[in-house]
Amino acid sequence: MKLEKKSIYILITYLIVYLLPGVLNSFFKLTHMEIFNIQIVDYLIGACLLGYFAFHNMPTNLPEKKRRSVGQTILWGVLGFIVVIILQSVILRLTIQTGGNANSQNTSALLSIVKSYPIYALVIIVAAPIMEEIVFRKVLFGNLANLLSFINPKIAQLLTAFISSGLFALAHSDGHLILYAAIGLWFSWLYHHTGRIQTSMMAHILMNSLVVLPILGL
């Protein structure tokens, strides 16, 4: 029951963190700068809280039954980053060739904020990847697979990989559902392959850093 309870705590905490800036804005009519400041503090605290729930006395789930070494985790984190960049390039190229729009309104809006308010990069590079990997990969993929393991452990993980990746895509809904679903499936595989959520976290952080750091002139 502990795994299920901690999963619920993580999901509730993530929902509160996600909704809090909007709720405060509806009550106090905040300026853009105030909203950004609240989001930075809110998301960083949220990442710390979710990290505590995820790593402090959390029972192992199905993907974590066989954990790879720290060295292999780092190696696969870097390789996972390289593959996800290639994956994005292929899918976006196919999108253009089929008459679609490769531009992401969500990404453009976030980068616009970073240009005007560089410290906001902490949200995109650090807080968001940590929280999303804990929620979508560790809880909605790994922990949920435990609940469905009565079917068959392998089938349960396959099913929850698609569920978590679909929800991950919807959470980033900006017209690129296939792209985000593919990224979600790849990150789920990284987590499953190494048994460590730090692998997909690393790949996710590096992926976001590649987009954000050039805006900061780094």
Notes on the structure:
The protein is an all-alpha fold and 218 residues long. The protein has one domain (2-216). The protein is 78% helix and 0% strand. It has eight helices and no strands. The longest helix has 28 residues, at 70-97. The relative contact order is 0.15. The model has no long low-confidence stretch (mean pLDDT 94).
What characterizes the major β-sheet?
none
The portion of residues forming beta strands comes to: under 5%
Radius of gyration, in angstroms, nearest whole number: 18 Å
Note poorly predicted spans: none
Overall 3D form = globular
- The SSE order reads HHHHHHHH
**Structural class label:** mainly alpha
C-alpha end-to-end distance? 46 Å
Average pLDDT score:
94
**How would you classify the quaternary structure?**
single chain
Could you give the count of β-strands? Answer: 0
Number of helices: 8
Number of domains: 1
Helix content: over 70%
Question: Summary?
Answer:
The chain has 218 residues and is mainly alpha-helical. It has eight helices and no strands.
